[in-house]
Q: What sequence folds into this?
């Protein structure tokens, strides 16, 4: 995972377990709720784009891929601008984070 801070005492370890038992399900519920809204917006974009511009399924795939690439590029540019990382380091961080590899070497 990201970082190297870990609880060292028994009280800290038990608190971490209790926090995770409550926090993980709450996070999953929140992510599900956010995902439902993002999914609805995504389908709205696809439907409106499909009606206006897509003559076939290949065009729909290109538009969806373009949207994904745009999100990745925006994230890379954001991290490149906000941190002191190079463009390659920012791209590496975005890729490792989005693919859930998460080595933790850039945080």
A:
């Amino acid at each position: 995972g990201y970082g190297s801070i870990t609880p060292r005492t028994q009280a800290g370890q038990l608190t971490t377990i209790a926090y995770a038992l409550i926090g993980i399900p709450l996070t999953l519920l929140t992510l599900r709720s956010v995902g439902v809204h993002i999914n609805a917006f995504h389908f709205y974009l696809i439907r409106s784009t499909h009606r206006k511009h897509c003559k076939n399924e290949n065009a729909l795939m290109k538009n969806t891929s373009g949207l994904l690439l745009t999100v990745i590029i925006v994230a890379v540019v954001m991290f490149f601008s906000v941190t002191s990382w190079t463009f390659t380091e920012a791209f590496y961080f975005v890729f490792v984070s989005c693919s859930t590899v998460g080595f933790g070497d850039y945080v």
Observations:
- The two ends are 10 Å apart (CA to CA).
- The chain has a mean pLDDT of 83.
- The CA atoms of residues 40 and 46 lie 10 Å apart.
